[in-house]
Amino acid sequence: MTESLQKLLHDCYRELRPRAPLPEFDLQFYPFANINNTIRLREGRLKLRLSDLLEGAPEPVLYAIVHILMAKIYRKPIERAHATRYRRYIGSHDMVSKAHLVRQMRGRKRIETAQGHVYNLEEIFDELNVRFFYGLLARPQMTWSGERARNMLGHYDPAHNAIVVSRIFDHPRVPRYAIEYLVYHEMLHLKHPVKLRGSRRCVHGREFQAEEKLFPQLEEAKAFLKTL
């Protein structure tokens, strides 16, 4: 670790805990599969792992993420200026592109199968593609989740170009329109990628919301999902 990083850690710690004894510091840039950052306190040693995508970032950005991590572990308020500075940096077009590439190269996506016991996701995608998108959307990988997840019903993963639907929906009691709505929603993510507005990510923009309302059984599908 360079002297400049050592000083940065020292200054940040003193800002948050001006009278506490200094711990030993250990900072590493680690090849995570995304822009992840971690902090651990063990036997008086403060160990930080920052995404290697942040190596070479401007010092104010590094100070901001170190402040955020230290504030969390010591349960201190996070200064808004630091949080905003970090969000803007990782939300920049350059960093978003790098993170996307890293997820493709390092991340692993477990692809199960599109054919379930009751429903075939590829068939549903193809039917919806013709009905709503003139057959113009290229079909990504379609797969049921490995587990019967309830916390994430469905999602589109742009890094691996895959639509994943929770296996809890592959059941005879689940109406087809509920599956169709989930797939349709993720197809809209495929058509309308996440946009950056300043430091904010726009996930469901106006065009997305307008097209979602075109799904004929939207209210019935949402009502059914609430019963799960």
Give a verbal description of the structure.
- This protein is of the alpha/beta class and 228 residues long.
- 43% of the residues lie in helices and 17% in strands.
- It is built from eight helices and eight strands.
- Strands 1-3-2 form a three-stranded mixed sheet, covered by helices on one side. It has a three-stranded mixed sheet with strand order 4-6-5, covered by helices on one side. The protein has a two-stranded antiparallel sheet with strand order 7-8.
- A hairpin with a 2-residue loop joins strand 7 and strand 8.
- It is elongated, with a radius of gyration of 22 Å.
- The chain starts with a helix and ends with a helix.
Topology summary:
Blueprint: H1 3-16, E1 24-30, E2 37-42, E3 45-51, H2 59-73, H3 80-90, H4 93-106, H5 121-133, E4 141-144, E5 154-157, E6 162-165, H6 176-191, E7 195-197, E8 200-202, H7 206-212, H8 218-225
Parallel strand pairs: 1-3, 4-6
Antiparallel strand pairs: 2-3, 5-6, 7-8
Helix pairs in contact: 1-2, 2-3, 5-6, 6-8
What features would you highlight for this structure?
alpha/beta; single chain; three-stranded mixed beta sheet; 228 residues
